């Protein structure tokens, strides 16, 4: 990070975390500044990688999908990067995060409600990562709160 | 869901999952339809709850925060709703999800990098839910992929 994150950046991010579709104009009005300044700060946050993505959080159940979180613990000494490379291009794997603690790798799978088909997908994923020691499988049934900042 | 989700809705959601800041105009051009139709479909998706939120995914490390996922297993027979109510208003708890499987409850905490302070925050959270049987603590160190659809 070449640029320091200033208090205005924090306020912009907080507002975008509640509604990422706020326009430059709306953000400028909420923060008592100009559209130009908002646009310039947001461009910097995007280019420096502080903002990874603007996205939509859907209700998977309403769309006919199941959201599964796989908490993966690799065997001692296993290469996490190898596991990540093997999973990156899997169309069912939507989120990949490196981690420390109970799990080394957290993966989100969005799959069909058909449990047999879902079993096949998860089994395919685990075959791609031979270094898996243990995998916690958690089905998300309802999102009660979702904020990012 | 009174309204059926049609193929256009799916395509809108897919595009918004990649970039939630796309304008009605940009979405209309990408999908070969009108701004009016995009606006109408998006309003329906928002009002019916299919779209829970438009948000920003930040790089927590760059902002000076640590992102912790708590996978909570409650004691058999415990009331998940009670646990949710106790955690809802906690300012450090950003995500609360009901779940089935390895964990009954998945919680995301955004806290400071100071490990002593973080320990205090997690300890406060676990005190609020006396029905906790087991808690997996996972520190997210890097987000490699983040898609929602």
From TrEMBL, chains A, B:
SMART domains linked: HTH_ASNC
> Would you name any one GO CC term?
cytosol
GO molecular function: any one? sequence-specific DNA binding
Its domain of life?
Answer: Archaea
Please give the SUPFAM superfamilies that the UniProt record associates with this protein: Dimeric alpha+beta barrel, Winged helix' DNA-binding domain
For the HTH asnC-type domain, which residue ranges apply?
8-66
Entry keyword Chaperone: no
Which CDD domains would you find in this protein's record?
A: HTH_ARSR
- Identify the Pfam families for this entry: HTH_24
- Give one GO biological process term: regulation of DNA-templated transcription
Q: Which UniProt keywords apply?
A: DNA-binding, Transcription, Transcription regulation
User: Keyword Protein biosynthesis on this protein?
Assistant: no
Which protein is depicted?
A: Transcriptional regulator
């Amino acid at each position: 990070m070449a640029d320091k994150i200033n208090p205005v950046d924090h306020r912009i991010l907080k507002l975008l975390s509640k509604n990422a579709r706020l326009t430059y104009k709306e953000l400028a009005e909420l923060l008592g500044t100009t559209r130009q300044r908002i646009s310039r700060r947001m461009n910097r946050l995007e280019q420096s990688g502080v903002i990874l993505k603007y996205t939509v959080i859907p209700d998977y159940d309403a769309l006919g999908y199941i959201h599964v979180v796989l908490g993966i613990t690799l065997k001692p000494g296993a290469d996490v990067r190898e596991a990540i490379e093997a999973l990156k291009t899997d169309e069912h794997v939507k989120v990949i995060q490196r981690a420390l603690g109970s799990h080394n790798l957290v993966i989100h799978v969005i799959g069909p409600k058909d449990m047999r088909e879902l079993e096949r997908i998860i089994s395919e994923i685990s075959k791609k990562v031979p270094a898996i020691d243990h995998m916690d499988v958690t089905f998300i049934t309802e999102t009660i709160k979702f904020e990012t900042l």
